[in-house]
Design goal:
Helix content is 39%, strand content 9%. The protein is an alpha/beta fold. Helix 2 (35-40) links the parallel strand 2 and strand 3 (43-45).
């Protein structure tokens, strides 16, 4: 295996799965905004993976991909909370959000000029469109797994997929519950990879063209 990419949308458990994998010896980046962060990490989750999985599949052959599902009844209000915080920062030339994250959010959740970009129907449509595109792309492939981390036994499913002995596997930790969004930053572990890690090309990102 080259890399493991977690390609579920935000608020589907990307932080929980990232933290869980740290204790299995993986170097994990929860979001990666530089080429060097990708070089350092064994696992990358969240942005840009949920938007760029096709490009990453080409750049990192023999990698594995995990899609995170979540019931829409739980995901929509959680995503509305997050997007309500992010919307003012998503314009291309202003706001504090990383340009890679802005691009990915705009790619999946645009148009933001619709009547209400936080409307339940708009978000549900975006979720289903992303899910269908992922399932179509990875159809009939054995390097792809879809799980819902809230389901009993989902951690064992993941470990089995990765070829890791899982007889004593418990369940995923529950992180970023409710209005929490920064548990990853607060979690200390030597295997964490900085999203903005600088290498020989400083903080350059990939040129997919």
């Amino acid at each position: 295996m080259n890399k493991l990419f977690i390609i579920g949308l935000p608020r589907t458990g990307t932080t929980s799965i990232s933290v869980a994998l740290l204790d299995y010896g993986f170097k994990v980046a929860h979001t990666a905004y530089t080429k060097h962060a990708f070089e350092l990490a064994d696992v990358v989750s969240d942005a840009p993976c949920f938007a760029d999985y096709k490009e990453l599949d080409a750049l990192f052959p023999n990698s594995k991909f995990v899609y995170l599902d979540r019931a829409l009844s739980a995901w929509v209000p959680s995503m509305q909370m997050l997007m309500n915080k992010m919307l003012p920062e998503l314009t291309p030339k202003s706001g504090y959000l990383n340009p890679v994250l802005k691009r990915c959010i705009n790619k999946i959740f645009a148009p933001f000029d619709c009547e209400n970009p936080l409307a339940q129907q708009h978000l549900e449509d975006c979720y289903r469109a992303h899910q269908q595109a992922v399932f179509n792309y990875f159809a009939q492939r054995d390097d792809f797994l879809a799980i819902d981390i809230s389901h009993t036994g989902s951690l064992k499913q993941l470990l089995d997929f990765l070829g890791i002995e899982s007889s004593t596997a418990g369940e995923f930790p529950r992180l970023n519950v409710g209005k929490r969004v920064d548990n990853w930053k607060e979690f200390k572990h030597p295997n964490k990879i900085n999203s903005n890690s600088a290498g020989t090309e400083r903080r350059k990102f990939f040129d997919y063209s």
